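Below sits the subject:

***
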Amino acid sequence: MIVAFSALYDSLDFRIYWLGGHVVMDGSHLYQERIAGLWFTNTPFMATLFKPLAMLPLTYARVLWQLTSLAAFIWACSVTTKMTGRAASLVTVVAAGLLLEPVWHSFFLGQVNLFLLALVLADMHRVALGRPAGIGIGIAAAIKLTPAIFIVLLLVTRRTKDAVTACVTFAVCSLLAYAIAPDASRTYWLHTFFDTSRVGVTYISNQSPYGTLARILHGTAEVGSWYMAVPVTISILGLTIAALWARRGDWLIATAVTGVTGLFVSPISWAHHWVWIVPALAVLLRDNHRKTALAGYIVFALSPLWWTPHNGDPREYGVHLLTPVANCYLIAGLYFLVHMTVRLRHQGRPTPWPSPQGDRTHTRPRATSTPSRRPGRVVL
């Protein structure tokens, strides 16, 4: 089915990636001219990665990309189930995961989200096992900046060597892109990467606090400079929660909380960016919060935000009865963070931080962190 869809449907975001691979070395045109009617908003490193794919015909390149995306998602599901410490049918997990709107929407658009999820989860699994990590997170951050929040998580959890590895990897990837496309790199890092005017901030798919507030206030012009305090506060609170769970040896919760926090910190968190629902649901199911997991699955499978007025409809803006529905991903994410915060009170005392003498001194965390967990199967 993936092959047939990829061959027949011209996924817009993938087309932009593919065209970006064509123009990445053409001066600064990558960021100064629209591609397929839209701006290229990803990093120069992302564009350089598409240089080889740009040599293929669009259809062949798209089929290859989508099949590789599927492989990345299967890998992400496999790593997630391993981090739960419980037996699960990988086929069932993948099948259920593909029904989640952020996942299938990533395929629909030909997006990069599933690769980022797989790269970060692979590294966080190594961290949970006490092994050296950081390369996957560094590559993910070089492709799209939001995964860089995991570097901060590594720092606050005293995984300093892993954080340095991630930073070095990020720098190497960015310098490689600069060597290949210096003009595009200068334009991006000096002007483009903090410019949110190139995308429709108020579009219903933007489920970040910034997007929600812009819709309520009828535009970004009404959001003052005071808003900068919001992502800073959220990042501090979210990373604190994640660090406390990591200190208790539960790196799956730490990973899910950090992923959701990153979505809140970013000014643009499209619906298809919310693939972090996969580890979040795994946490809830592992810990036998089945009703909460079912409610979350229904929200992200049915995606009722798309049922509300959007695409410029005046009813999309302001506060009204449909506002909670229109921002249901944001509300679900907030609930998850609060839920994980409340659960900290019911856990035992945190263990001391592992010795900073070396990564290999870390011990493997227990597969379970709550006494109520029982062996069983996990279905996402």
Observations:
- The first helix runs from residue 2 to 8.
- Residues 248 and 349 are 8 Å apart (CA to CA).
- Residues 196-349 form one domain.
- Confidence is low (pLDDT under 50) at residues 355-380.
